[in-house]
Specification:
20% strand, globular, binds arginine
């Protein structure tokens, strides 16, 4: 830190006071966990947040890494309409990568940053209950497509999370779930993070990916996205593709008790601290 940076600490103090003791759910996209330096920078920021008293809850998936391991093992990923079909073999890979490799990496790095972290999946402590997604019609298909072992969330029990965060532990959750019959499902990590944030009535849900935030017509970052602007941009297809479900689930989270949702880029350094502890932030904020 330089002398000139000290005034920034003054800007941050009100936010540190405001957020201390609050719960924030942070979803980390696979691309952040894919690069060691990136993951390290991100985890250091998470550690700082915990140090100032924020109860951080991490959620991650790892679609990119799952595709890579599938290829290594000679399992061809089947993608229909941009969505992965999860058969038995693909689910095995998902379990290895989500609950194994990525979760262990995140827990280890955060431990090195001085945190007490507990790695778990949505299966642990009955955190996420799911049911199989029924076959759906996708564009151009005559008969409905069965996406296999992809689940939809039917219940969230955050008891285990409360026990951990109130005991001074930071939970790192991989986006797997199961039903009462012992079937395991692969669930979209954004969806899991949002469901947990709603159940915890979190102060913030922070979606960390490889984009800077929601972009407007001129491709500038929208600092604060209102519902009416979002509706316009969806109508004009400016918000489209992978951003559309993110924005839609952000507004759903707000309706269900989350104070604010933030989209930030985890591939640039220090974006989490900038978003939380400066007035203007660096990503998109939705309230
Ligand atoms: N630091 C403040 C907060 O987290 C404001 C963030 C503003 N962010 C933005 N993208 N406009 O509540």
């Amino acid at each position: 830190m330089k002398r000139d940076d000290i005034p920034l600490l003054r800007e941050s103090l009100p936010y540190i006071n405001k957020f201390s003791g609050k719960v924030m759910v942070v979803k980390i996209g696979g691309e952040i966990a894919d690069n060691e330096d990136n993951l390290k920078n991100f985890c250091e920021q998470v550690a700082l947040c915990v140090r100032v008293g924020i109860k951080m809850v991490l959620v991650h998936g790892g679609g990119k890494q799952a595709t890579a391991l599938s290829k290594k093992l000679g399992i061809e990923p089947k993608i229909v309409d941009g969505r992965r079909i999860t058969d038995e073999k693909t689910l095995e890979v998902t379990k290895m990568v989500f609950a194994g490799q990525i979760n262990t990496d995140i827990v280890t790095i955060l431990r090195k940053c001085g945190l007490r972290v507990v790695g778990l999946s949505g299966i642990d402590g009955n955190l996420i209950s799911a049911k199989k997604r029924p076959p759906v019609h996708v564009d151009g298909s005559k008969k409905p497509i069965d996406f296999g072992l992809v689940g939809d969330i039917v219940g969230v029990d955050v008891n285990v999370i409360n026990v951990l965060i109130n005991g001074g532990f930071t939970p790192a959750i991989s986006s797997l779930a199961s039903d009462d019959d012992g079937e395991v499902y692969n669930i979209n990590a954004d969806t899991v993070a949002s469901a947990i944030a709603c159940a915890l009535k979190a102060e913030k849900l922070i979606l960390v990916s490889n984009v800077h935030g929601v972009l407007d017509r001129e491709k500038n970052i929208i600092s604060k996205l209102t519902r009416s602007l979002a509706e316009e941009l969806i109508e004009e297809k400016v918000i489209a593709g992978g951003m559309l479900p993110k924005v839609q689930s952000a507004f759903k989270a707000i309706e269900n008790g989350v104070r604010s949702v933030h989209l930030i880029n985890g591939l640039s350094s220090d974006t989490l601290l900038m978003e939380l502890f400066t007035e203007s932030g660096c990503g998109t904020m939705i309230e």
